[in-house]
Amino acid sequence: MKFSYTLGSVLSASAVIAAPAPAPVAEPMPMPTPPGIPSASSARSQLNGLIVATATDDGTYNRDLFPTWDTISGTCNTREYVLKRDGTGVVVGSDCYPTSGSWKSPYDGATWTAPSDLDIDHMVPLKNAWISGANKWTTAKREQFANDIDRPQLWAVTDNVNSAKGDKSPDKWKPPLTSFYCTYASAYVAVKSYWDLSVTSAEKSALSGMLSTC
Q1: pLDDT digit of tens for each residue in the chain (214 aa)?
Q2: pTM of this prediction?
Q3: C-alpha–C-alpha distance, residues 135 and 61, integer Å
């Protein structure tokens, strides 16, 4: 039996054989999504329902008035729970401390593989809560607030970005990533609304502006 090949068919076949497989495209890491983030319309309604009042700092705030971190499950405390919840491919040891994984900080978009590069931020800062109503709470209620995993109050973020935020409200500090303004404001309002905390007029104006980016 005779076979005939054209030069073109040979070249085409060799090109197919020689063609390298396409390199896999890395999927972008998703932003963490703690529970309870409302829609923009719900956040606007919640914002309009907040009491507007002047915040008075009487100098009595102390971080220890908001105990952290509670044991959430097994050996996992609140910080470790959030790291596990918000990371990708997180592996933990018997003490629940992450031994590997990666985390995307929603405030600045940075990705980290060492948990030591991350802080667990309170969306509504503890001192802000204190001067907007939490000073009248019991210590037990403040502890619940400081360890609230059922609402969008706790976020794993780049440590120095969290340090820059400190105890500032949105009229004095906003996340570097402007595309996160909508989610940030929505989460902030949800926490204030649930815990019945007031906002200043400047705070409300800043949140309204951030929600306008939604």
Answers
A1: 444 444 444 444 444 444 444 333 334 667 788 999 999 999 999 999 999 999 989 999 999 999 999 999 999 999 999 999 999 999 999 999 999 999 999 999 999 999 999 999 999 999 999 999 999 999 999 999 999 999 999 999 999 999 999 999 999 999 999 999 999 999 999 999 999 999 999 999 999 999 999 9
A2: 0.86
A3: 8
Report how far Cα 148 is from the mean position of its chain's Cα atoms.
13
What are the structure tokens assigned to 214, written together? 């939604």
Classify 202 as helix, strand or coil: helix
Which residue in 199, 37, 44, 18 sits closest to 125, CA to CA? Answer: 199
**Cβ pair 38, 186 in contact under 8 A:** yes
Query: Would you call 14 helix, strand, or coil by DSSP?
Result: helix
